[in-house]
């Protein structure tokens, strides 16, 4: 059942149910193989994409920066994670009317970079450089991709790579949806909302 409110993966039962969906989700299988490759090459945890989202059939790629601490509890990159960032994403995507089946949420640096129990930190230059190797195989898995939303400075640094790999692909830059950014000024959530509305237009969604 699709959650009607944010932070549903704060419930361990909901996390277990979500993981039970993973094996029965063929739209995730290629992404899981890519995640396994990244784990092996980087020797770091890589959370799963959410089986309730579009996986490789998605038309919208939402790139964040790097998995946050909540992924250690859920092992998912998801708008349903029990964090302020995920809750903001849930609301922005819902307001824009973008269906879950149209979205894949991924990270510019897709592996966990912070030490166990530590607060998240910004990716280092070397980590961003290493992450570029995984963009081509990711895009190769997404034949229906119609727009990419780049949330935050790290994701936006990959815009030239995306443009070179998919010439003409619309790239929409928005501020990172973490509460730290969203609460700095009313202009920040307005810019995020406008970016998602623009992405919805690229998907030919009403709005």
What does this structure look like?
The chain is α/β, with parallel strands linked by helices. Helix content is 42%, strand content 11%. It has a four-stranded parallel β-sheet, sandwiched between helices. Strands 1-3 form a two-stranded parallel ribbon. Helix 4 packs across helix 10.
Describe the secondary structure blueprint for this structure.
Layout: H1 12-22, H2 29-42, E1 48-49, E2 60-64, H3 71-74, E3 76-77, H4 84-96, E4 103-107, H5 125-131, H6 135-140, E5 147-151, H7 153-156, H8 159-165, E6 171-174, H9 179-182, H10 187-202
Parallel strand pairs: 1-3, 2-4, 2-5, 5-6
- Which stretches are low in confidence, meaning pLDDT under 50 for 5 or more residues running? none
Please state the structural category. alpha/beta
Please trace the helix and strand order, writing H or E for each element.
Answer: HHEEHEHEHHEHHEHH
What is the number of strand segments?
6
> Helical element count?
10
- Which shape, going by the Cα principal axes? globular
Main sheet record: 4 strands, parallel
Strand content: 5-15%
The side-by-side strand order for the widest beta sheet comes to: 4-2-5-6
Distance between the termini: 25 Å
Radius of gyration from CA coordinates: 16 Å
What portion of residues is helical? 40-55%
Mean pLDDT across the residues is 94
């Amino acid at each position: 059942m699709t959650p009607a409110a944010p932070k549903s993966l704060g419930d361990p039962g909901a996390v277990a149910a979500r993981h039970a969906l993973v094996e029965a989700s063929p739209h995730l299988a290629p992404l899981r193989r890519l995640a396994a490759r990244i784990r092996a090459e980087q020797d770091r945890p890589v959370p799963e994409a959410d089986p309730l989202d579009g996986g490789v059939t998605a038309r919208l790629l939402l790139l964040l920066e790097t998995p946050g601490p909540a992924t250690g509890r859920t092992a998912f990159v998801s708008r349903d994670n029990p964090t302020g960032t995920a809750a903001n994403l849930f609301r922005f995507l819902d307001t824009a009317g973008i269906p879950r089946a149209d979205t894949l949420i991924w990270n510019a640096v897709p592996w966990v970079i912070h030490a166990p129990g530590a607060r998240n930190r910004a990716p280092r230059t070397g980590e961003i450089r290493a992450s570029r190797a995984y963009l081509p195989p990711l895009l190769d898995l997404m034949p229906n991709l119609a727009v990419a939303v780049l949330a935050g400075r790290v994701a936006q640094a990959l815009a030239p790579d995306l443009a070179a790999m998919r010439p003409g692909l619309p790239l929409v830059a928005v501020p990172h949806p973490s509460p730290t950014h969203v609460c700095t000024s009313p202009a920040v959530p307005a810019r995020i909302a406008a970016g998602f509305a623009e992405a919805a237009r690229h998907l030919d969604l009403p709005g």
